[in-house]
Amino acid sequence: MLSKSQARAFFLGGTFVTFAIFLGMSWNSLVNEVPKQTNPQNLTEQVVHGKELWEENNCMGCHSIFGEGAYYAPELTKVVERRGEAYIKAVLMAKTPWMPRGRKMVAYGFSDQDASDMVEFFKWAGEADLNGFPPKPDVKR
Amino acid sequence: MKYKSQKVAYWFFASAILLLSLQIIYGFIMGFAHMGYDGLHSITPFNTARAVHTNLLVVWLLLGFMGAAYYIIPEEAQQELVNVKLAYVQLISFLVVGVIAIVGYHLNYWEGRKFLEIPRPLDWLVVVNVLLFLGLILATLYKGKKKTTTALVLAMGLLFAALLYLPGMIWFDNQTLDSFFRWWVVHLWVEGVWELIMGGILAFLLIKLTGVDREVIEKWLYVIIGLTFLSGILGTGHHYYYIGVGKIWLIVGGIFSMLEPLAFLAMALFAVGMYRKGEKKHPNKLALYWTLGTAIISFVGAGLLGMAHTLPQVNLYTHGTLVTAMHGHLAFWGAYGMIVFSFITFALPNLTGRKLYDTVNGQLAYWLSNIGMAGMTLAFGVAGVAQVYLERKLGLEFGAVQKEIEVHFFVLILMATMFSTGITLFIIEFFRFGKPNDEAIGFEENLKKA
């Protein structure tokens, strides 16, 4: 039967080994995978400002990007492809709440510049290689 | 209780359950909004309600863990808390930071990163606060006569939780990196070090409630936390499938997160096993109910329901849908909400010296909250699966699908009402005990003699 010191060794050994592998894999992701899959060369000032706006307004509190966020409003990773720039800018610049099918969005009343920066951020997100996410619906394949 | 300074735990528990009730109110706001009734939109839009709901969850659970630590550490170390006044300062300042954050969320002052919405200047106040808390706990442990495994595991969990908060404070221009390190905080907390905290509290409760030998319980504690880290650290990979990093995470994350339920299964078997082995009949039956409940419900909510959508081929479709909300609710409730409730139920008679064991209200609180939460999980699950098929498989538009699943939110609200009734009864019972007092010192020991 397992003794207490053996149990402790299992805990310490397992933790050390898996954490070492985790750090190694994380390093590999940062050095090799992120540059290949996310086009860091395209992170222009506009894109970065778009990300700032994304965070300052807690867009993730309703929407999701890369599938992460809340589930109250649509996934936005491929929104430029799906809706086009003009629609997105109209939503962001609206002075009264946008209400698709009655569900209200906060009226942000963005300036033209801020709305364009946000679109640039979405374009950058839409071009990232996300291993097949979001999936294409079966009927559209 | 054995030591005067343990009384501070009571105020942490009182704050925790009050914040939980506030969390529930914001939950209702969101539930109604999902049904199409968003009358509060102009003052509390969905993103505000959501940030308040999830942040209050984290804050009240942390308050519960801290209260448990202030109770457990003096008793295990056989030493009064090194400075009680500072513990009160820590509680008050923690609450002040929390209130500023919540008010800020209503004024568009936040950092829109799921679970870590607290703006960075306030993050630093959290860091100072947690350092004060850790200082008090570790100094007490250091000065104490004994350093038990249970106390060390609990302290280690709290220390790592504090350290892991730091990667979440770094700014990244790249959304992928932002997300990558956000999970170092969120995942490694809830599927890593928080399980250490849970394990430590669970071990303490089982030692007290079942009377099984400490050596036996602590041996199994090591096995459980060993399984937790063995599976949970590389299990982080299930958050990396679709955020812009390599496919190797699909394999590693998939395999190790399939192993994650093992830690919870071990916890459930361990708790039930110790209960059956124990010969001691502790009068606080409700505390035993909650303790066995947390071990079992965490296995179902965190273990099984997590496993249900953790494989990459399933997660490709369920990622970012209400299926996540289904798993999230039962997991947080079963593993962390219930362990805090277990501890409060165990500690209250000892802190106040009142023998309000096994009351009708206490029983109702247990059953209503648990059945209510199970029903809520079911409602989220049905809505989530319907969403996955209609939106992700058939390609219907997001808004159209949301209209289709509105009815499930009616069921959700009904079940949430049942849950809230249970919580209300728990709070009523809590205040019926009255305040902690010095006469309760030695209460537990007298109980043993009797």
The two chains with the largest interface, and their residue counts, are: A-B, 69 and 76 residues
Using DSSP, what is the number of strands of chain A?
Answer: 2
The overall average pLDDT of chain A, rounded, is 96
How far apart, in Å, are the first and last alpha carbons of chain B? 16 Å
Radius of gyration of CA atoms of chain A, rounded to a whole number: 21 Å
Compute the average pLDDT of chain B. 96
Q: Report the top-level CATH class of chain B.
A: Mainly Alpha
Q: How far is it from the N-terminal to the C-terminal residue of chain A, by CA?
A: 56 Å
What oligomeric state do the depicted chains represent? heterodimer
What is the C-level CATH assignment of the largest domain in chain A? Mainly Alpha
Helical segment count of chain B: 16
Order of helices and strands of chain A: HHEEHHH
Structural class by secondary-structure content of chain A: mainly alpha
Structure notes:
The complex is a heterodimer of chains A (141) and B (450). Chain A has helices at 4-37, 45-56, 79-83, 85-93, 112-127, and strands spanning 64-65, 68-69. Chain A is an all-alpha fold. Chain A has two domains: 1-37; 42-140, Orthogonal Bundle (Cytochrome Bc1 Complex, Chain D, domain 2), CATH 1.10.760. The longest helix of chain B has 36 residues, at 175-210. At the A-B interface, helix 1, helix 2, strand 1 and strand 2 of A face helix 1, helix 2, helix 6, helix 7 and helix 8 of B.
Task: Supply database-style keywords.
heterodimer, A: 141 residues, mainly alpha, Cytochrome Bc1 Complex, Chain D, domain 2, two-stranded antiparallel sheet, 5 helices, B: 450 residues, Cytochrome C Oxidase, Chain A, 16 helices
Report a brief summary of the structure.
The complex is a heterodimer of chains A (about 140) and B (about 450). Chain A is an all-alpha fold.
